[in-house]
Amino acid sequence: MTVEFVILVPLMLLTMLGFSEVYMYMRTVSLVEHTAFTLADSLGQMSSVINDPTTSSSNSLGSIWAAANLIAAPNNLQAKGGVYITSICDQTTNCNPATPGTPPIQPPLPALAAGTPLQFWQQSAPWTLSGMKSQETSGNLLPTTWPFRNGDSAIVVEVFYSYTPFSMTMPFWTNAPGTQTIYERVYVRPRIGSPLLLVPS
Questions:
Q1: How confident is the model at residue 197 (pLDDT cuts 50, 70, 90)?
Q2: Looking at the predicted structure, is the pLDDT value of residue 170 above 60?
Q3: What percent helix, strand, coil does the chain show, rounded to 5?
Q4: pLDDT of 22-37, one tens digit each?
Q5: CB 185 within 8 Å of CB 89
Q6: According to a count of CB atoms within 10 Å of the terminal CB, is the N or C end of the chain lower?
Q7: Which DSSP letter does residue 177 get?
C-alpha cells in the first residue's frame, strides 16, 4: 500500500499541475485575444482619438489604455504587456502622416481600384514593455488578402502579454521554461468609412 501511495500521489499531483498550467495558459491567450478584439471594435466606432494621457474623455488615449488593462484582468497588462494602435489610410488620398488630425480628402478615383495603405499614425500605451515592438511596418501594414481599395482605411490593434509558465512551481523548479510573449493583432475598418484621426487634447 505504501509503495502504491508513493508512486500514485506524485503522478496525481503532476497531472493536476499540468491541467492547471494548461488552463492558465489558455485563459491568458483568451484574455489577450478578447482585449485586442474589444479595443478594435470600440475604436472602429470612433471618428477620432484624443491625444490625452488622462481619462477625462472616453475617446482619450488614457481611457483606451485604462480600458485595455481592465479588459485583460486578472492579468496585469500594465505591468507585463503592451498595446499599440495604428491608423491606416490610403496613400492615393490626401493622407499626410505629419498631420494625423487632418481628415484626408478623397479625390475622384476609379471604382474598386487598388489602394496603397499608408500608416496615418501610431501610438503605444506608455507602460508598454521596451522589448514589445509593433509588427506594423511600412511593408507589413495589412495582410495580403485584405481587400484595400481607393479611399479605404483600417485600424490595427496589437496586444502583448509576457506570460510566465509554471509560476506556481517556480520557487521549487528553477529550471522551468522561461517567459514567452503572447501576441494578438486585430484589423478592423472604421464604421464611418474614413481614417481614425488623432486629435490634440
A1: very high
A2: no
A3: 30, 25, 45
A4: 788 899 999 999 999 9
A5: no
A6: N
A7: -
Model pLDDT, residue 109: 57
Grid coordinates of 122 = 501610431
Give the HSE-up count for residue 39: Cα atoms under 13 Å, Cβ half-sphere. Answer: 34
- CB contact set of 50 (below 8 Å; sequence gap of 6+): 57, 59, 60, 61, 199, 200, 201
Q: How many CB atoms lie within 10 A of CB 25?
A: 15
Burial class from Cβ neighbours inside 10 Å (0-12, 13-18, 19+) for residue 55 reads: middle
Q: CA 70, 73, 78, 83 torsion: positive or negative? A: negative
Rg (CA), the chain: 22
pLDDT (mean) for 155-169: 85
Query: How many other C-beta atoms can be found within 10 angstroms of the C-beta atom of residue 59?
Result: 16
Q: What does the block give as the cell for 194?
A: 474614413
Read off the pLDDT of residues 89-140 as tens digits, 9 standing for 90 and up. 988 776 777 777 777 766 555 667 788 899 999 999 999 999 999 999 888 8
CA distances from 123 to 8, 87, 120 (A): 53, 9, 11
Amino acid present at 141: L
Pull the grid cell for residue 171: 520557487
